[in-house]
């Protein structure tokens, strides 16, 4: 089967959507399928593997990490695709890629699937706080219902997400397919050395968060948990935050306000492999 993935985001932008796409593409290729990805071009230098095409893009207002594909440039590229070239269109994001994917699938006479990655009801308010949270929730529910019911099928990463979309009134067929983690990505690391590099004593209790440092991840809750432990049962607790994202500065200020500066380690983005494995091994939970 020849599959075209369309997305408004992909590496070098590091997030769950990019990771899921890479994982599924690799597994589908292992099964003998051909998978092409069309995604935005990013300003930073990127070396892509074969089968990944980039579309000229521009900045996204209120979200400097992301890029928006230029619709006309994307439309010209998709117009070159001939009937029979792809058997399935798999959209990954509900923005420019969604509408372009629907139009292309209709023209080619092939199914259009979409993976619903993000719980936008708890997402948009953090980046566009121009409306009350309740208003954003109502808008995103209606928007999601309309978009999802345009599709031939939906992939959702969890049963919880499936139940949310059902409550929204989505009646498109859904399949729960969690994004697996390739076991080869987690090499043996050296937790003791990682602790030493970041000034953590071998006997100190350590909590680890690995992921995008974004507002919707509610990492502030972890800082407050660490603060409670520090003030009660574990005065030498350390919280490692591995990742990058727009919430980092605010979390650092929260840590300072809580008096947690000595108990926090912001170690940045760690590529999968020895260093990330070492970070996991350095933690107790």
Total domain units: 2
What is the CA–CA distance across the termini? 42 Å
Query: Would you state the CATH class of the largest domain?
Result: Alpha Beta
Q: How many helical stretches?
A: 10
* Rg, Cα atoms, Å: 21 Å
Low-confidence stretches: none
Number-wise, the strands total 12
Helix content percent band: 25-40%
Strand order of the largest sheet: 3-2-1-6-7-8-9
Q: Which assembly state applies to the chains in this document?
A: single chain
Shape label: globular
Structural class designation:
alpha/beta
Largest beta-sheet details: 7 strands, parallel
Order of helices and strands: EHEEEEHEHEHHEHEHEHEHEH
Mean pLDDT: 93
User: Any idea what the CATH architecture of the largest domain is?
Assistant: 3-Layer(aba) Sandwich
- Per CATH, the superfamily of the largest domain is Glycogen Phosphorylase B
Strand content: 15-25%
The name CATH uses for the topology of the largest domain is Rossmann fold
């Amino acid at each position: 089967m020849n599959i075209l993935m369309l997305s408004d985001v992909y590496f070098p932008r590091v997030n769950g959507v990019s990771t899921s796409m890479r994982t599924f593409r690799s597994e589908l290729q292992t099964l003998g399928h051909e998978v092409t990805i069309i995604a935005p071009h990013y300003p930073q230098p990127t070396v892509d593997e074969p089968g990944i095409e980039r579309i000229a893009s521009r900045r996204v207002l209120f979200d400097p990490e992301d890029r928006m594909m230029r619709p006309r440039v994307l439309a010209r590229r998709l117009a070159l695709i001939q009937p029979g070239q792809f058997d399935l269109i798999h959209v990954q994001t509900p923005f420019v890629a969604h509408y372009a994917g629907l139009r292309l699938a209709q023209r080619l006479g092939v199914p259009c699937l979409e993976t619903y990655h993000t719980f936008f009801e708890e997402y948009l308010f953090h980046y566009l706080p121009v409306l009350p949270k309740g208003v954003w929730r109502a808008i995103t529910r209606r928007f999601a219902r309309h978009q999802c019911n345009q599709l031939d099928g939906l992939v959702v990463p969890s049963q919880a997400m499936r139940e949310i979309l059902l409550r929204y009134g989505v009646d498109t067929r859904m399949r729960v397919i969690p994004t697996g983690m390739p076991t080869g990505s987690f090499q043996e690391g050296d937790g003791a050395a990682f602790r030493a590099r970041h000034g953590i004593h071998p006997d100190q209790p350590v909590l680890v968060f690995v992921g995008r440092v974004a507002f919707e991840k509610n990492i502030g809750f972890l800082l407050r948990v660490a603060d409670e432990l520090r003030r009660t049962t574990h005065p030498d607790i350390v919280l490692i935050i591995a990742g990058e994202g727009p919430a980092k500065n605010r979390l650092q200020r929260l840590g300072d306000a809580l008096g947690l500066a000595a108990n926090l380690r912001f170690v940045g983005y760690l590529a999968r492999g020895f260093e990330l494995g070492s970070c996991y091994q350095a933690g107790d939970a």
